[in-house]
Every structure is written in structure tokens, then in C-alpha cells.
Write a structure and sequence with these properties.
With 209 residues, this protein is an alpha/beta fold. The chain contains 6 helices and 12 strands. Helix 3 links the parallel strand 4 and strand 5.
Amino acid sequence: MEGVKVIDHPLVQHKLTIMRNKETSTAGFRRLLREIATLLCYEVTRNLELTTVEIETPLCPMTAPTLVGKKLVFASVLRAGNGLLEGMLDLVPAARVAHVGLYRDPKTLQAVEYYFKAPDDLADRLTIIVDPMLATANSAVAAVDRLKERGAKDLRFVCLLAVPEGIERFRGAHPDVEIYTAAVDSHLNEKGYIIPGLGDAGDRMYGTK
């Protein structure tokens, strides 16, 4: 699928399988989400631009690669996005963080915003949106809409699971934003949940089911 990158690394797939299992504990689910986020972060940041600097090792001077430009931004779609955020920050602790608070209306399945906080200079930074599930894509589209309103121009979306319906909706609204996911599942059920999926990521992460 154009604009969609499925991260099929064996460790990602193994951890995802354990997370799907309904017998996995809240603590285990939370730990695995953090671990898998770090692995996904490697992939979504693979083509970050580099420059070189002159340094001295304990043995000699050298020209060495380093990241160029302003630090990137991780934008967490609350609340479940925070599980991925923690793993991302383990790998890139200097990154800036934005929070987009959205909940899904149970009747309309539309996203309702209740909180937004982001750096002022998003236009100068790569912004990586994190949300475990790309289901109806209503929340993801609303989050990208809001970030673009704030000035973000270079965006990528990272999730654990996606479905064809969500991908089509998201890419239709934001064809310039690439999707990075660990798996593309079969379909949505009548309640808008991913099948086979892993249940509600937020509930499983925080033990609120």
C-alpha cells in the first residue's frame, strides 16, 4: 500500500503476538508496548538527516556524523499514545513532546478534542505522531489536522495496528503523511474495533477494562 510501511522485524512481530494474547497482564502489556515502541522508533527515524562535526576521541581527532537541524517532536494522541511515547523517548530523550487529547464519541465514532499542547515552532521540526491503533482513523486525522494548524509540515504517523478502512481514510485526508505500523489487520467490527486486533490499547495498558 502506498504510503504505508509495515515493520516486519522478527522482534516486533514476536512482541506484538504476546500483546495480542488476552492472557497478557497489564504490566506485561505496558512493558511490551514500551519495548516495541523503541523498535518502531528505529524505523521511523531511519532517514533522519546527518551532518558532520569535528571531535576528538581518546586516541585522535576525527570527523563524525551527527543529527542536523532542530530536535524532532513526538506527538502523543492521548491517552494510549503515551505508551508508545515512553519507548520513543527512551531512544530519543532530547525530543520535544506534543500532546493531543482526543476521545472517540461512542455513538458517532468521531474524535472530540479536549486538550492540545505543542511546541510553537513545529514548522521547523519533524513531527512523529504516535497512537497504537489506526482504526476508523478519525482520531488520527483530527490529530494531524490540529498539528498542521499549528504549523507542522513534516509529519509521520506510527501505530501498532492498522486496518484497510483506517488507512484509506487517513491517506485520503493526509496523503503527505506516511504510516508506519507493525501490522495491517483484517477489518473493523460494528463498534469500530480492529479485528483480530488486541482490544482497547488504553484499557489494556492502564488496567481500566
